[in-house]
Write a structure and sequence with these properties.
- This protein has a 5-stranded antiparallel sheet. A 4-stranded antiparallel sheet has the order 9-16-11-14.
- It has helices at 2-24, 33-50, 57-67, 69-80, 97-118, 122-128, 130-139, 141-155, 196-201, 228-240, 277-294, 303-326, 336-345, 399-404, 425-434, 437-459, 469-484, and strands at residues 164-167, 170-177, 181-186, 191-195, 205-206, 214-223, 252-259, 262-271, 347-351, 356-358, 366-372, 375-381, 384-391, 396-397, 411-414, 418-424.
- The radius of gyration is 38 Å and the shape is elongated.
- The chain has 4 domains: 2-139, no CATH class; 156-206, SH3 type barrels (Roll), CATH 2.30.30; 214-301, 2-Layer Sandwich (Alpha-Beta Plaits); 314-484, Jelly Rolls (Sandwich).
- The model is unreliable at 304-315 (pLDDT under 50).
- The protein has 17 helices and 16 strands.
- 50% of the residues lie in helices and 20% in strands.
């Protein structure tokens, strides 16, 4: 027994040295079970070398055989599975294959130990306990079905971790794939654990394969009195401006059906962020409502209700427009008759929170007066959008484009829902022709506002004009006369 103890100690220390080298030098992730394996293996090896037998020797040898599966599995995780990209989203093997392989290795080690030390084989084990084998077979039927279904899904690369799927009408993200089931999470952060066998029978729409780019569609019913091309133009503009909607491929609109007093349209847009689908769809629908409202295009509501709303709103708009116009420095020299003519041609439009009222660089021939709400002014510099001012009720913007036809010099975004009065070129042109002196006053006011804007831009280190005030006024007057053909 003394030799047995000495040999066991030597083999155990040798095993610890090898294990330490594997763990620290080769980076094999050996756990605490490896110590049990080394100890049992050392005792078993010492028994054979010393030719000594003792009670419990077979049991220790069986433990050594079973625990040998764990360092072997660690070696596979260090050297074999990484060759196939595991772990990682681009793994070329099913993510749960290493788990299944680990279970198989442990089972193989168990039955090998039983065969070597107890002469118990699998056929003999099954023959000696037929009832138990039947019970185990029935109990494992669903488990084995899920395992094989998981292999089939992964072999066909139906989905990977991180993919967004359309499953039973729900948008769900794949968060984990294991040997029994697939864990999913929907937009409400609710986790779903679905057996692989159930998924194998379902129709899976993978929104991220072969690429995350995918299109979505929504339907809108509009009053049948509106020309289809006008509706399509409004739907395309509103949808393209929604955050998360891609510019390429472009938004497309289809007329899909005629209903009772309505025409149905289908809007198709493209996105790549499945996680934000609900928010993107909300933005698209909200933008469509505001754009149709601004263009006086009615959704498919009862005609009687629409007519009543239009009548009451028209009277209210006229009074608000007159009051707003009278307070604007740009129109301070106009008498009540001229203000009335201006108000008759102006129109009141509404923008939702987050919408761009005007966009820097776009063509324009109108100005806006903010009647309700708050907005922010942004200027692009070096590819970045800088905030250069805030607008509140009563402020006006865009007058440069109205009077000279120049491109928009800034972007104005609604911070909350806004109602604005829009004055277009066609409204002010008759006034300029009938009252030529009005051009001088407008250009003086425009030059003063330009100076104020340049001061604000200078604070943000954005270069403005360097011309003298008189030069600015003369330049505006020349552009105004050319734009309006005076």
């Amino acid at each position: 027994m003394l030799f047995l103890a000495l040999f066991a100690i030597v083999f155990y220390l040798l095993g610890l040295v090898i294990a330490r080298w594997l763990k620290h030098q080769i980076k094999v992730n050996l756990g605490w079970i490896s110590h049990i394996f080394i100890l049992c293996l050392a005792i078993t090896a010492a028994r054979f070398v010393a030719h000594v037998n003792f009670a419990g020797a077979k049991e220790i040898a069986l433990v050594a055989a079973i625990t040998a599966a764990f360092p072997l599995n660690a070696l596979l995780h260090r050297f074999i599975w990484p060759l196939y990209g595991y772990p990682g989203e681009n793994a070329r093997i099913p993510n749960f294959l290493p788990q299944v392989a680990g279970i198989i290795i442990v089972g193989a080690a168990l039955f090998t130990g039983l065969a070597l030390f107890y002469h118990i084989t699998i056929p003999g084990l099954l023959a000696g306990s037929g009832l138990i084998a039947i019970v185990l077979g029935l109990a494992l039927q669903d488990t084995l079905g899920n395992i094989f279904a998981g292999f089939g899904l992964q072999a066909g690369r139906a989905y990977r971790v991180g993919d967004w799927l359309l499953l039973d009408g729900q948008h769900v993200e794949v968060t984990e794939i294991n040997w029994r089931s697939t864990r999913l999470r929907n937009n409400d952060a609710v986790s779903l654990d679905v057996p692989n066998a159930q998924l194998a029978k379902a129709t899976i729409v993978n929104l991220y394969y072969p690429t995350p780019l995918h299109g979505r569609r929504i339907r809108v019913s509009v009053d049948d009195q509106v020309p289809p091309n006008d509706v399509k133009d409004a739907l395309i503009k509103a949808t393209a401006a929604a955050p998360g909607v891609l510019k390429d491929p472009p938004v497309t609109v289809f007329l899909v059906d005629f209903g009772e007093a309505c025409v149905r349209y289908e809007v198709r847009f493209w996105l790549i962020d499945g996680k934000q689908y609900a928010q993107i769809q909300d933005s698209v629908r909200s933008n469509i409502w505001y754009e149709l409202e601004r263009r006086r295009i009615q959704l498919a509501y009862p005609v009687q209700t629409v007519q009543l709303v239009r009548e009451s709103r028209g009277r209210r708009d006229r009074q608000i427009d007159l009051n707003l116009l009278a307070r604007q420095p740009l129109f301070g020299s106009l008498d009540s008759d001229l203000l009335g003519q201006l108000a008759n041609g102006a129109k009141r439009v509404r923008f939702g929170k987050g919408e761009q009222i005007i966009r820097q660089g776009e063509k324009g021939d109108s100005m806006f007066i903010l009647e309700e709400g708050q907005a922010e002014v942004f200027v692009q510099k070096d590819g970045h959008s800088l905030s250069v001012g805030a607008l509140s009720a009563g402020d006006c913007f865009g007058e440069m484009s109205l009077l000279t036809g120049e491109q928009r010099s800034a972007t104005v975004v609604a911070n909350i829902d806004c109602e604005v009065v829009e004055i277009q070129k066609g409204t002010i042109a008759p006034l300029l022709r009938e009252h030529p002196e009005l051009a001088n006053f407008l250009t003086e006011t425009l030059a003063a506002r330009k100076a104020t804007t340049d001061t604000e831009l200078a604070k943000n280190r954005i270069v403005g004009t360097t011309l003298a005030p008189n030069e600015i006024k003369e330049g505006f007057l020349r552009k105004l006369r050319q734009f309006f053909e005076l």
